[in-house]
Write a structure and sequence with these properties.
WD40/YVTN_repeat-like_dom_sf; globular; exocytosis; 2 domains; four-stranded antiparallel sheet; Syntaxin-binding 5-like, partial; Methylamine Dehydrogenase, Chain H; mainly beta; LLGL2; GTPase activator activity
Length: 237
């Protein structure tokens, strides 16, 4: 299993595999439902190459019938559960993908990549991202076209509110800093920690369809669990 997704009050768990398939499990019985999204149904018919492990499964916050599937090779698929077909395919120019996350309006999403970059997409424009930038690079930041310095992978990204990103990794190679970054516009704040295993934002509503406004972050480190308070402008631990 390479990815797991479950939404509030849903009775289904979506399991992504290294083989690139999605299996649906009933929470109450913990039995497979029989519904499977096979990788060869997600790719273009003319494409023969395997898209790689399925790294991310995200339910559209405004339409539970739509799933966003993110594959290692940079292929991102918008899948319609009822009709069992692909709505849109997005191929990231950066190739190696690590994570994806929806905006609360369900019309845009952000993807993170192996080269330390982020891409913002609109579901109506699958040909190219609306924006691509590398937050911690000396170049390729927002509005900067100079040559980028090499950065570590952004292993996970989410939105603490629309247009405000929270992500792990992405620092330039050789940096002694570790932790999470909060980025809004061109402003970045690094929350220094030990190496991050995973994190989740805390919101004041369980409904993903509501406008996002995180009040805290739970961060799993290798040897401890910490919580950050985002309820005021000065982030506290």
């Amino acid at each position: 299993i390479s990815s797991v997704s479950i939404s509030f009050q849903s009775k289904w768990i979506y399991l992504g595999t290294k083989a690139g398939n999605v299996h649906v499990v009933n929470i109450e019985s913990f039995q497979l439902s029989g519904y499977t999204i096979h990788w060869n149904k997600a790719i273009e018919r003319s494409q023969k190459e395997h898209p790689g492990p399925l790294y991310e499964i995200c339910e559209n916050p405004q339409d539970a019938n739509k799933l966003l599937l993110g594959y290692e090779t940079g292929l991102i698929v918008l899948w319609d559960l009822k009709s069992k077909v692909v709505d849109q395919r997005f191929q990231s120019p950066q190739k190696s993908l690590r994570s994806v996350a929806w905006y609360s309006d369900g019309k845009q999403f952000v993807s993170s990549h192996q080269d330390g970059s982020l891409s913002v997409w609109n579901i109506k424009n699958p040909q190219r991202p609306l924006e691509m930038f590398t937050p911690h690079s000396n170049g390729r930041s927002r509005g900067d076209s100079t040559k980028a310095t090499a950065c570590s992978p952004i292993t996970k990204v989410c939105l603490v509110r629309d247009s405000c990103f929270l992500f792990s990794g992405g620092l330039h190679y050789g940096s002694k800093c570790k932790g999470l970054t909060i980025m809004e516009g061109k402003t970045k704040k690094l929350l220094h920690t030990k190496p991050v295993v995973d994190f989740v934002s805390i919101t004041d509503t369980p409904w993903e369809s509501d406008e996002v406004d995180a009040v805290g972050i739970i961060v799993l480190l290798q040897t401890e669990l910490i919580v950050y308070d985002l309820s005021n402008s000065a982030v506290s631990q």
